[in-house]
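Review form for a predicted model. The reviewer records the input and the model, then writes brief findings.
Reviewer: anonymous (R2)
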Amino acid sequence: MIRKNPSGHLPLIDESAYIDKTAIICGKVIIKENVFVGPYAVIRADEVDDSGDMQPIVIGANSNIQDGVVIHSKSGAAVTIGEYSSIAHRSIVHGPCEVGDRVFIGFNSVLFNCRVGNGSVVRHNSVVDGRDLPDDFYVPATEHIGPHTDLDRYPPISVSASEFSEDVARTNIDLVRGYKALQNEF
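Model under review:
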């Protein structure tokens, strides 16, 4: 469902993107080329800041927002998902937040008030809250990273983790093409 927010903003969705019919895209949302938005995902830009304005939620080209993901923002803050990034099933990305290019966010993970650098991997059931992560950073499953977390204690990202992230992005680009082709059958 594509809908207007109370401020009157409508989503801007590139015609090459695939949005599942059960997803909700509301308000000041910009979805770029070849993006996959899966079943029951919610991308909602509707809260305003103290001046009554809001920044957009932007989903970069060739990224995927999988089943049950929620992307929202506090008080009109920006949320940006870079290109070729994957936000896996049931994750929450709550702005202010920036996810770089070629990033993988694992199942049930939560991001809030942070920046995740390009090429990073945040594995399943992890939380990143109030702490920016550098490029090519690896967060193991079930970790909680907060404002005072010592990032030096984390291992470097492995080749297999990077390859996995790239494979997920490629697979979802193929899904966009497949589902777009199916739309023409009904």
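Findings: The chain has a mean pLDDT of 95.
Further findings: Residues 85 and 182 are 24 Å apart (CA to CA).
Recommendation: see findings above.
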